[in-house]
Automatic annotation (TrEMBL):
Domain Alcohol dehydrogenase-like N-terminal, residue spans: 36-119
Organism: Auritidibacter ignavus
SUPFAM superfamilies: GroES-like
GO function term, MF aspect, one: oxidoreductase activity
Protein's name in the database: Alcohol dehydrogenase catalytic domain-containing protein
Domain of life: Bacteria
InterPro entries, per database record: ADH-like_N, GroES-like_sf, Zn-ADH-like_protein
Signal peptide: none
Length: 154
């Protein structure tokens, strides 16, 4: 399996074995953005049922122990890949949903195309929960095969 998310952290919340979470300290070496990755300093990362299930070993997309939990996050762009055409800028607040767990870390190296700007009027803690909830809602709507005029309970 190709590594989709590379955690370049000072600290991360790591599942070392099922039922056991540990704060992992890394060397603190901060990598600049690589050829195709932006470096983001995480401010908030949500904790959802998938994180709890994965930590217990009960998640249907179960990673093997040694993984960092978390899918969605909000943070500040610290660096961008050279020549990035993402429209993002260093210092900008962004949100993202990772394609694999790994958001419960202080820094992430991610593809810029998974990042979206967060309006300054929206608190980072609130923004951290919106993207994954929206993805989940869209998935449920697609599974429901709704047609024009159908109702949805919210």
């Amino acid at each position: 399996m190709r590594l989709l998310v590379r955690t370049t952290t000072d600290q991360s919340l790591k599942v070392t074995r099922f039922g056991e979470l540990k704060i992992r300290q890394s060397a603190g070496r901060r990598s600049p953005a690589t050829r195709n990755r932006a470096l983001v300093r995480v401010e908030y990362a949500s904790v959802g049922v998938t994180d709890v299930m994965a930590a217990r070993g009960d998640y249907h997309l179960q990673p093997v122990p040694g993984f960092v939990t978390g899918y969605d996050f909000v943070g500040i762009v610290e660096s961008l890949p050279p020549g990035s055409l993402s429209g993002l800028r260093v210092g900008q607040r962004v949100a993202g949903v990772l394609p694999a767990m790994g958001a419960h870390a202080t820094r992430l190296a991610v593809r810029p195309d998974i990042l979206v700007p967060v309006p300054s009027a929206l608190h980072a803690a609130s923004a951290a929960t919106i993207l994954l909830d929206a993805v989940t809602a869209m998935h449920a709507l697609r599974l429901a095969n709704l047609e024009r005029g159908d109702s949805v309970l919210i």
